[in-house]
Design goal:
Keywords: ATP-binding, Folate biosynthesis, Kinase, Nucleotide-binding, Transferase
Largest sheet: 5 strands, antiparallel
Strand content: 25-35%
Helix content: 25-40%
Number of helices: 4
CATH topology: Alpha-Beta Plaits
Organism: Schumannella soli
Number of strands: 11
GO molecular function: 2-amino-4-hydroxy-6-hydroxymethyldihydropteridine diphosphokinase activity; ATP binding; kinase activity
Number of domains: 1
Enzyme class: transferase
CATH class: Alpha Beta
Structural class: alpha+beta
CATH architecture: 2-Layer Sandwich
Protein name: 2-amino-4-hydroxy-6-hydroxymethyldihydropteridine diphosphokinase
Amino acid sequence: MTDVPRTAVIALGANLGERETTIRQAVAELEATEQIDVLAVSPLYDSVALTLQGRDESKPGYLNGVALVTTTLDPETLLAVLQGIETAHGRVRVERWGDRTLDLDLIDFAGMTRDSDLLTLPHPRAVERDFVLRPWLDVDPDAELVGEGRVADLLARLDRSR
């Protein structure tokens, strides 16, 4: 924990239940958490489910967005808060990249890099996911992903490759 607030980017997603309601409640719970201030929340976007085998249109679609927050928590404590909110909304971790009522991923934390058993920063697959990059750009047009470059450029590259 530190006295200096640092900015974090949190990806929001859900493909089961009342997706938008769940995401909005999760954002409200983040805002209600001591030491976290929600600065901005992106519009929510529909996306195709992504599994270990790739895109799967037979699965329920996702609703995705990004929240930009400031916090005096350390990254691991923030991650624990995110996982607690997921659990409170019925998140069950049975299948990697499986269906979920709520998914809160810590994408970036003050530009830090970290690779531990608990947390990898920046999120290792953010650069591949337009459903993270597009809403991130909505809340921070000047955003940069450490080690990868400007989010606008990363998104443009993804869009060109499709």
